[in-house]
Amino acid sequence: MHCQCVHEFGRPLRSDDRPDLAPQGTEVVLSVTAAGVCHTDLHIRDGGYDLGRGRKLEFAKRGISLPLVMGHETAGKVVATGPDAGNIDTRKTYVVYPWIGCGTCAVCKGGNEQLCGTPKFLGIHVDGGYATQIRVPHPKYLFEIGNMPPETAAPLACSGLTAFGALKKVENTLKDHAPLIIGAGGLGLMCAQLLRAMGAQAPVFVDLDPVKREAALAAGACAAIDPSAPDVVAEIHAAAGGAPLAVIDFVGAETTAELGFNAVSKGGTYVVVGLFGGGAPWSLPLIALKSITIRGSYAGSPGEFAQLMELARKGEISPIPTTRYQLDEAEAVLNRLAEGKIIGRAVLTGVGDYLPEAADQRVR
Ligand SMILES: [Zn+2]
Ligand SMILES: [Zn+2]
After folding, report:
1. Domain count, the chain
2. pLDDT tens digit string along 307-336?
3. How far does residue 71's CA lie from ligand 1's centre (Å)?
């Protein structure tokens, strides 16, 4: 097999050739046909997150060991199965659920492997999809993509699931009450589509960028509000027909946390998804007086991914625009992503039928 590999944090990826993967037990090996390139991958390659004020979250101290094949948004076909993997349809293309836990702790047994304390996330803790082959520990992590192109299905495992997982936290409010969504970037717009597919009320958006507010309206928002307006909370309440019972924050900054808290209804829920950073701005007595729930959301569970894939297979989610690249362009693609030059999602495709000559010609 051929892969693009992190050997040293802060250094370019390296091309490696290794023996083909041989599955054991319940494992399956897929020939990769699409591997999404995510912003998280940039942070992994660079070795951590900048936490501001000179602080850094270092992956080397967080159990991420090298060499590592990145890529947590992977689609492909099964080419080999372990003796205990059972029968798998090798004609179908699957997208891989990557947020895999230990499988034995209380959190995993409760169905939330994405929250396991000893994660084995594909492409983050163990080898992922920037390769011609990927090893998956059990076929239960494979989800059929139906008629979707693999490059459309692969990113659902990350951005799609993150948006869906956040909405599931407030699902009981969505039929009758418009939620407030803070941030009209990729995840926010994905939410607008999912809300429609779930038969929910059209959301109210806030975003500083007028272009993104237009995009939110085009995606089905009932209103898109500029958060710098002095009466922004009153505007939100007017647009939502009252204080929203659910607020989802895809930014996660101190300013948006304050806005979400001020806008949410008494008894409502404010969900933080974005990782912009900072400290909590809320007054403790007001949390009690408003009796609100403040909670986080990270990716989504295997059960939620099954539901999301069902919606996607029915064609109820329109594809995110994608640009295709060859596997050996991974380093160049990461650099373009860092420069903000990738429109939509970059996906490494044709990965399973890798042709070194073709890739060499396309490297830019
Ligand atoms: Zn991702
Ligand atoms: Zn676990």
Report:
1. 2
2. 999 999 999 888 777 889 999 999 999 999
3. 8
